[in-house]
Amino acid sequence: MTEGAVIETRGLTKQYRGGQLAVDHLDLTVPAGSVFGFLGPNGSGKTTTIRMLMGLIDPTAGTARVLGEPVPRAVRAVLPHVGALIEGPALYGHMTGRDNLLRFDAADPTADPRSRGARVGAALERVGLTAAAGKKAKAYSLGMKQRLGLAAALLQPRRLLVLDEPTNGLDPQGMREIRALVRELAADGTTVFLSSHLLDEIEQVCTHAAVMTRGRLVTQGPVAELSAGARGRLAVTTPDPADAVRILKELGVTDLVVDGDLVTGEPPTGSGGSSGGSGSDGDGGGDRETTDLAELNAALVHGGVRVRAFGLQRASLEDAFVALTGEGFDVAG
Ligand SMILES: Nc1ncnc2c1ncn2[C@@H]1O[C@H](COP(=O)(O)OP(=O)(O)OP(=O)(O)O)[C@@H](O)[C@H]1O
Ligand SMILES: [Mg+2]
């Protein structure tokens, strides 16, 4: 067990009956206190992994520890410390939102019945459902159901929150609220493990991330390091985009795209920044990479191109994903 790991898996594998490998030898390490983004396109194995971690399905092979305890073996000891929201929260449609939460709370043997009403009220408030608390759950929108599921996970203070696509079905304002809530919970010391297929969501809220594709782990680590591993695109602002494209092409820049007065492209191998910075921060004076970029800039100017701005765009997690997998990232789901 890695010191300070809240979730650790070794060789964790799931093959559904008759299916292909949904999760393939996963080695995951989630540090205590992190907001850990579990990122991957639809069908990459996120929910399957979460179900194994919560003891809902058995792995085909491999091991998992949650809060230091082996699961599924010790899942009964672990679950009271874990709040979970897993795809399609189980709600009673004929009951109101508030009654659903009262019922969840009553099912928890450690929950003091005398403070039940107050706990439920606070959880509803936290997810912004107070005004809709008296409505039947079957009349809730998808986003309201997500919020109710989240409220159920927040009834007790937890050491770990596991949230499977918590912003699924929410509008942009709802997504912002959930992100703010996740940050608050993390500030209270709760480790948050959340899955998403939205890269920018992970970038905005997570300290660490793991990237999955087709059941396999592509990479994991601090978010800053992951996006720094990808090279940013070269970006040139100029009133002479056609000339700029011609010259950059001759110098080995590929995948050139013109959008108004902005020309972007992939810098030639060896000239990309590995810092993930903007390229305009003037660091590393004299190193080869900077020199190569300077040469590109000089060639443009020499060729009569009026350069208004020149630099590397910040690499995003999406760039990192594409660089690591050679695949586009499906964000349509
Ligand atoms: N109960 C099941 N029986 C058989 N195959 C399944 C089952 N659940 C999932 N799968 C398959 O396992 C793979 C991983 O699915 P999973 O639901 O874990 O992906 P996901 O990353 O959560 O996707 P999404 O972003 O769409 O939620 C997929 O190929 C899926 O079709
Ligand atoms: Mg899923």
Please provide a written account of the structure.
This protein is elongated. It folds into two domains: 5-228, Rossmann fold (3-Layer(aba) Sandwich); 234-314, Alpha-Beta Plaits, CATH 3.30.70. By secondary structure, it is α/β, with parallel strands linked by helices. The longest helix is centred in the middle third of the chain and has 16 residues, at 172-187. The strands form three sheets. A six-stranded mixed sheet has the order 7-8-9-4-10-11, with helices on both faces. Strands 1, 2, 3, 5 and 6 form a five-stranded antiparallel sheet that branches. A four-stranded antiparallel sheet has the order 13-14-12-15, covered by helices on one side. The chain starts with a strand and ends in an 8-residue tail after the last helix. The chain is 32% helix and 24% strand. Helix 3 packs across helix 4 (116-126) and helix 4 packs across helix 5 (142-153). Bound molecules: adenosine-5'-triphosphate (ATP) and magnesium ion. The site of adenosine-5'-triphosphate has 13 residues, from helix 1.
